[in-house]
Amino acid sequence: DIQMAQSPSSLSASVGDRVTITCRASQNIDRWLAWYQQKPGKAPKLLISEASGLQSGVPSRFSGSGSGTEFSLTISSLQPDDSATYYCQQYNVFSTFGQGTKLDI
Amino acid sequence: ELQLLESGGGLVEPGGSLKLSCAASGFTFSHYAMSWVRQVPGKGLEWVSAISGSGGGTYYTDSAKGRFTISRDNSKDTVDLQMNFLRADDTAVYYCAKGTVTAGRGYHYDYWGKGALVTVSS
Q: Which residue of chain B is at minimal alpha-carbon distance from A93?
C-alpha cells in the first residue's frame, strides 16, 4: 500500500501570508496527486489534480507542485475563507489520503 | 446541476448490516467510476471502495474485503455499498464520490455527496 505523509498537521497564519503544505508518498506516484479543501461539516472540495492542475473556479492563489514522492500545496496570499483542513490524495494505485493539515487564519 | 445524494445511514449494532445508496444526477452516470470514502468524525479521509463505470471492476480497502460489496445500477444512476459484519471502527460519515475516469484502479474525485453517518454501537 502507498502511504502519504502530510505536514504540518496544523498551522496558524495571518491574512496575506504565504503558506506551504507538503505531502510525501512512500513510493513513486508520478504526478497522480490531488489536493482537497474541507470545511467543518462539509464534503471535501477538489482544488488541484495531477499535482499542479488547478480546478476551474479555484482561486489562482492556490498552486501545487511536485512529482515522484514529494509534493506541495502553496497558498500565496491567505484569505479568511481559506481556513479549512487540506488533504492530499495519491491515486496512482487505488487511493490514499494524507492525514490532513488544519489551517487556522 | 450535478448532485450526489447518499441515503441509508443510521445506527446499527455490531455484527449487523446496512446498505448505503447514492443517487446521482446531472451527468452521464455510466461514463464515470464511483467510490465510497469514509471519515471518522474529527479524523481524516479513508478510501473504502470503488467501482468502474460499467460495474465490471470493483475494488476494496483491506478492511472492507469480505464484508462490504459495492454495486451500481446504471439504469437508475445509483451506486450502493452493502456493509455486513459491521464493527465499531466502521463508524464514520460515508461519502459517495464521483471519479474523473470510466475505469482504472486510481482516480481523483471531482464531486462528493454530503455524506451519510453510520454509527455502529450496541
A: B106
pLDDT tens digits, one per residue of B73-111:
999 999 999 999 999 999 999 999 999 988 777 889 999
C-alpha cell at A62: 492556490
CB contact under 8 A, A87 and B109: no
Give how far Cα B67 sits from Cα of A63, A75, B26, B86, Å. 39, 41, 31, 8
Alpha carbon distance B88, B77 (integer Å): 30
Q: How confident is the model at residue B69 (pLDDT cuts 50, 70, 90)?
A: very high
pLDDT at position B103 is 79
Contact between B47 and A96 using a beta-carbon 8 Å cutoff: yes
Sequence-separated (6 or more) residues with CB below 8 Å from residue B117: B9, B10, B92, B93, B94
Segment A49-64 mean pLDDT: 97
Three cell numbers at B85? 459484519
A97–B46 C-beta distance less than 8 A: yes
Nearest CB neighbour to B112, from listed A44, A95, A97 = A44
- Spatial CA neighbour of A102 closest among A41, A37, A49: A37
> What's the DSSP call for residue B28?
-
> Can you give the length of chain A in residues?
105
Is B44 close to A43, i.e. CB distance below 8 A? no
- Within an 8 Å CB–CB cutoff, is residue B105 touching chain A? yes
Q: Is A63 helix (H, G, I), strand (E, B) or coil?
A: strand
